[in-house]
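Data availability (excerpt). The following record was deposited with the supplementary files.
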Amino acid sequence: MTKMAECGILQIMNQEGLVRNHAFIKNTIENVCGLFNENKIDYHLGGAISGYLDSCGELVRCHNDIDINLNENDIGKVQQVLKKANTDFKFRDFRFKSPNLINGFGENGRVIKACPDKPHMHEVHAFYEDYKNFHLGFWIYEKNDSHASLKRFYTFAPTGQSMVIAYPQEIEEYNKMNTSINFRGLKIPCLSAEWLLNLKKNYYAPREKDKQDIEVWDNALQNR
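Predicted structure:
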């Protein structure tokens, strides 16, 4: 894995820092997705990085993680592959003791956080040891022939009990979310820019970085 120094993730970066960030991400994608392909792991590259690579083929802003949709059955395989390949990623699995504390559920079943200002953590992730702000963040899916269910894991603050919430969708809809890209000689399954653009435009209040994503993806897709 390519080593690099920490470089002010999610802060305004100079051009040199941005170039290093993008180089690190691209090398990581090549290495990690190459390992996943070789070991037949059921995954899709996700998040904003997927949107940029699918829409315009380049990264534009800084990123502090790589989101990956992962079949729950392959969690153990991912852990073994990262360790066997002697990568610098430290694998962690907090599904059954999630650091994401909640107090209950509000309108429309929305989760009420016990710590509203604390960002939601991926329950399964792999931190890059020499680059402390960077990690692979896994979105865990349970899949069968008819459905693909996103699973979120929480700890109910009043009792300390572990909780799992599943968000099922028909397998056809899940498949429509996904496409594939050719990247450095690899065929990488990923979330489509069209699906991500629709999500950011219509399903939650965009942050500043989301507004930038929307503008870049919209322009790229219109001119593709």
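Summary of structural features: The CA atoms of residues 100 and 118 lie 8 Å apart.
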